[in-house]
Design a protein that fits this description.
Radius of gyration: 20 Å
Helix content: 10-25%
Strand content: 25-35%
Order of helices and strands: EEEEEHEHHEEEHEHEHEEEEEEEE
Number of helices: 6
Number of strands: 19
Shape: globular
Length: 323
C-alpha cells in the first residue's frame, strides 16, 4: 500500500523525504518527515524526535536512522519525524514552546481549535501517530537535566496491549524499563496507548549534550526495536546487550518548594531513602534556606542540574526495581 502523510507519498519499495506545512493559527511551521515504504508488507512503525527543544540525541539518532534505512531492507513501513516541534527545537531550545509557553508533551492528543502547541499536537497525533502499529518517542535529558538512560511505557486496562508494549520496551536493550501504572496525561506515548497503540518513550543522554556515542547507543536500540517488530533482519553491526533489561517503577518526585538557587547534596544515580536530605534551595536576596528531602526510597534516575529553580520545578525523580 502507498504510505501517505499529508501531501507526502511513498509507493511500496520507495523512500520519500519532505516537509509538511502545518497551520498553528499564529504561524505556520514545517514538519520534516521521512517515509520508508518497504518492499514487503508489514507493520507501520512511527518514530518521533524533537518533541522538546534542547534534547539533541533523539534528533540525531532519528536523522541517522532515516538516512540508513532503505526500502529493500524494510518489511512494512517506517515513518520518521526527527523534529516534531520546530518552535521548541529551533527557537526555544527548551521543553516549552516560545509560541505560547506550553509543553507539547503535556497536551496530547491536542486540540485542532486550541493554541499553537495544542494544534501542533493534534496534527501530529492525527496525521503521524494515529494508525501506527508501534510508536517510539525519543527524548533525552535537557540542558539542565542529568539522567540515567531508560525506556518508559504506560499500563492500560488491555493486558494483551500491555504485554506487546512491554516486549517492545525490553527489546530496546536498555537496563532500566520504567512503567507507569496508567495511561493518563498528555504525553504522546500515553495518548497513543489510550488509542490502543503499543507505544514507548526512550530517554538517552543528558545535559543537552550532542554526544555521538549516545546517539549510536540509541540508534542500536532502534535497530533492536525494529528487528523485534519484524521490520528489519537482525542487524550485524549493533552492540550486544550486556545487562538484561529490568522492570522499574516510579516511587516519587522531588520538587522545589520556592524560587531560588538549587544546591543538590545527592546526584543522579544515588540511592536515597524517604526523608533523607537531598539538597537546599537558597533565596539569593536574603540567604534564607529551604531544605529539600527525598519523598520516597529508591534511586535518582534524573535530576536538576541547573542552578536557578522556580516553585514546583522537578529536582529529582526516584524509582526502584519492580521485582
Amino acid at each position: 500500500m502507498t504510505l501517505t502523510v499529508g501531501p507526502l507519498r511513498a509507493e511500496p519499495g520507495r523512500k520519500t523525504r519532505g516537509v509538511i506545512p502545518v497551520d498553528l493559527g499564529l504561524t505556520t511551521v514545517e514538519i520534516p518527515l521521512v517515509l520508508v515504504n518497504g518492499s514487503r508488507p508489514g507493520p507501520r512503525v512511527v518514530i518521533t524526535g524533537g518533541v522538546h527543544g534542547g534534547e539533541f540525541v533523539g534528533i540525531d539518532a532519528a536523522t541517522r536512522l532515516a538516512g540508513f534505512l532503505e526500502p529493500d531492507d524494510v518489511t512494512g513501513q517506517v515513518v520518521i519525524c526527527p523534529v516534531a516541534n520546530p518552535p521548541a527545537v529551533y527557537d526555544g531550545r527548551l521543553g516549552k514552546s516560545p509560541l505560547d509557553d506550553v509543553n507539547i508533551n503535556r497536551v496530547f492528543p491536542g486540540d485542532p481549535a486550541g493554541g499553537p502547541t495544542e494544534r501542533l499536537a493534534a496534527w501530529l497525533f492525527e496525521h503521524v501517530i494515529s494508525g501506527a502499529d508501534a510508536y517510539a518517542d525519543l527524548h533525552s535529558g535537557g540542558i539542565d537535566e542529568t539522567l540515567l538512560d531508560f525506556v518508559g511505557y504506560r499500563l492500560t486496562s488491555d493486558a494483551e496491549l500491555d504485554a506487546r508494549t512491554r516486549a517492545m520496551a525490553h527489546a530496546v536493550g536498555y537496563e532500566r524499563v520504567l512503567f507507569g501504572r496508567n495511561a493518563e496525561g498528555g504525553n504522546s506515548h500515553a495518548a497513543a496507548a489510550r488509542q490502543g497503540i503499543p507505544a514507548i518513550l526512550i530517554e538517552t543522554g543528558q545535559l543537552g549534550e550532542r554526544d555521538p556515542a549516545q546517539a549510536r547507543a540509541l540508534l542500536d536500540g532502534l535497530y533492536r526495536l525494529l528487528h523485534h517488530l519484524g521490520v528489519i533482519d537482525a542487524p550485524q553491526h549493533v552492540a550486544p546487550v550486556t545487562v538484561p533489561p529490568r522492570d522499574w517503577v516510579w516511587t516519587g518526585s522531588v520538587v522545589s518548594p520556592a524560587t531560588g538557587l538549587w544546591y543538590p547534596d545527592a546526584a543522579t544515580g544515588d540511592e536515597v531513602t524517604a526523608g533523607q536530605p537531598v539538597g537546599r534551595v537558597i533565596d539569593p536576596a536574603d540567604g534564607s534556606e529551604h531544605k529539600v528531602t527525598a519523598t520516597a526510597t529508591g534511586q535518582i534516575l534524573y535530576g536538576m542540574n541547573g542552578l536557578t529553580v522556580a516553585p514546583g520545578a522537578e529536582l529529582a525523580a526516584i524509582a526502584v526495581p519492580h521485582d
